[in-house]
Amino acid sequence: MSARTKALAAAALAATLALAGCQAIKQGAAGIIASTGKVSREDAQSLVRTAEAVRSTFAEITEEEEYYIGRATAALILSKYTPYRNEALNAYVNVMGTVLAYNSDRPETYGGYHFLVLDTDEVNAMAAPGGFIFVTKGLVNRCGDEETLAAILAHEIGHVAERHGLQSIKKSRLLDAFKVIGSEASRQFNSEELAKVTGIFEGVLGDVVETLVERGYDRKFEYEADKLALSFTVRTGYSPGGLAEFLVGMEEHKPSGTAAGWFKTHPSPADRLARVKTETAALGAVPARLDVRTARFAEAVKNLR
Amino acid sequence: MKKPARLTFLIATVLVVFVFLLAETVVVKIKTTSIRRDPKFTSPAVAAIKAGDTMEKLEARDGWVKVRTKAGVVGWLHSTAVETKKLDLLAMDKTMKTQASAGEVALAAKGFNKQVEDKYRAGNAAADFAAVDAMEKVKPSAAEVDAFLKQGKLGEYGGAR
What is the pLDDT of residue B22? Predict the structure, then answer.
């Protein structure tokens, strides 16, 4: 084996190990590369370093950071909407949402999943990063049974599981944040850093809230969340028909004028319905809708004003 | 030993040592959760754990990880609650301190945290954090979850797959 081949093989090994984050072996690997005599020790070190993970994208936002972004996003949503004071309904929605989250691709998040019904006749549902999920009273009123509400909650859980909200954060903002935050293992900022990071945090919230409340997700994320909703509901034991029924209902009530709320932030129901029907057919045998669930749904919503 | 064989042997040794060191420990990455007796969410909790706790990984199956805590409790955690801990030899070489892996950053670094939230709250009185705190307090118990599944013939009580 030539020295050059050996150097290349050692460099490849070094890069693999560096990505895996093992310092001692990395040092050894750099030594192996340098020992071939074809690469200087400094170059060998830099070869190892460039293969290391550096935070640069939404995917590297930590669970804890996602939680704090989600909390503040939820706080801003709750500055526009009031919680619906109906403990029994809220408990019902929370236990249903929890069961669906357990059957999702991401059952555990830093602060867990929490659900809240908002006191408005507007029909809408929103998911803040980390698992703060909101459905409006108007939307619950539009649901005919438990399978339908389960489909809506599962769709929102899908947005959380795939971190769609975080993907609306402008890349430049994230790079700024990661630059200030750095990688020193200290949890406290000095006052200058804190002011800077808090400024960036406000910008991050602006991006997320604008997407959730005003602009809506990219439509590919909505289609993905629909697909996940079918999967999570069926895994839980629900009939997958709820989502299609909700979309049919929304299509029938489509406003004729300028789109607002849900209609503004979501692709057209007819468009989604076509995909959902195809995906449902592909599921094969699925659980049936049961009267016992429809009855308890009716009980939970009987006092809805 | 011939030269290529020696290199192969070296690479193999390094990999074996590396895999051995890497595979054993997991660290909790969510605020709080429970270790459960069996690999399912309706199974009884055997220990409460929090972010940063480390434990020995014994086995992995269907998205769940079997662990043993430092106190010797054995049970199951969902894989989304933990991350596999990378070997941390940073202390052995102080000059390499700034080269923490992303995983270590995830668990130890400052970022958008409580300190940032407090500073943000001080300047944004309209953001209703009290309502968020109330929202977070609602957390169905394992018994409530089980009763809901049973009554609705869901999960293991029904046609789930």
Answer: 55
Contact A107, B41 (CB under 8 A): yes
Q: How far apart are CA A191 and CA A173, in angstroms?
A: 20
Is the predicted ipTM greater than 0.90, yes or no? no
Task: Pick B100 or B60 by higher pLDDT.
Answer: B60
Which pLDDT band, with edges at 50, 70 and 90, does A25 fall under? very low
Q: How far apart are CA A262 and CA A179, in angstroms?
A: 36
Report the alpha-carbon distance of residue A14 to residue A189 in Å, rounded: 34
Pick among A64, A100, A115, A188 to test the B interface (most B CBs inside 10 A)? A64
* CB count in 10 Å sphere of residue A226: 23
**Higher local confidence (pLDDT), A172 or B92:** A172
Contact B154 A20 (CB under 8 A): no
Query: Domains in chain B, ordered, with CATH?
Result: 1-109 (2.30.30.40), 112-161 (no CATH)
Count of C-beta atoms within a 10 Å radius of residue A173: 17
**CA of B71 vs chain A CAs: smallest distance (Å):** 23
Among A208, A105, A90, A95, CA closest to A157: A105
Q: What pLDDT score does A40 carry? A: 53
| Continuous segment of H or E residues that includes residue B19 | helix B3-22
pLDDT in the model for residue A195: 94
Convert the pLDDT of each residue in A186-222 to its tens digit: 667 889 989 999 999 999 999 999 999 999 999 999 9
- Between helix A87-102 and helix A291-300 the angle, nearest 10°, is 140
Query: Can you list the positions of beta strands (E) in chain B?
Result: 25-28, 32-36, 45-50, 54-61, 64-68, 74-78, 82-84
Cβ of A94 within 8 Å of Cβ of B138? The answer is: yes
Separation of alpha carbons A112 and A66, rounded Å: 12
Distances (CA, A) of A25 to A183, B62, B158: 21, 31, 51
Query: How close B64 gets to chain A, by Cα (Å)?
Result: 11
| CB spacing of A185 vs B104 below 8 angstroms | yes
